[in-house]
Amino acid sequence: MSRAALLVLADGRFPAGGHAHSGGAEAAVAAGRVTDAASLADFCRGRLHTTGLTAAALAAAAALGVDPLELDAAADARTPSAALRTAARKLGRQLMRAARATWPSAELDALAAARPRGAHQPVVLGLTARAAALGPTDAAYCAAYETLSGPATATVRLLSLDPFDATAVLARLAPDVDRIADQATDAARRVLDHGPDALPAASAPLLEISAEAHGGWPVRLFAS
Amino acid sequence: MHLDHATTYPERHTHSADAQRPDGTRRALRIGLGGPVGSGKTATVAALCRALRDTVSLAVVTNDIYTREDAAFLLREAVLPPERITAVETGACPHTAIRDDISANLEAVEDLEDEVGPLDLILVESGGDNLTATFSKGLVDAQIFVIDVAGGDDIPRKGGPGVTTADLLVVNKTDLAPYVGSDLGRMARDAKEQRAELPVVFQSLRTDDGVGPVAEWVRARLRDWASA
Question: CA of B99, closest CA in chain A: separation in Å?
Answer without folding.
Answer: 10
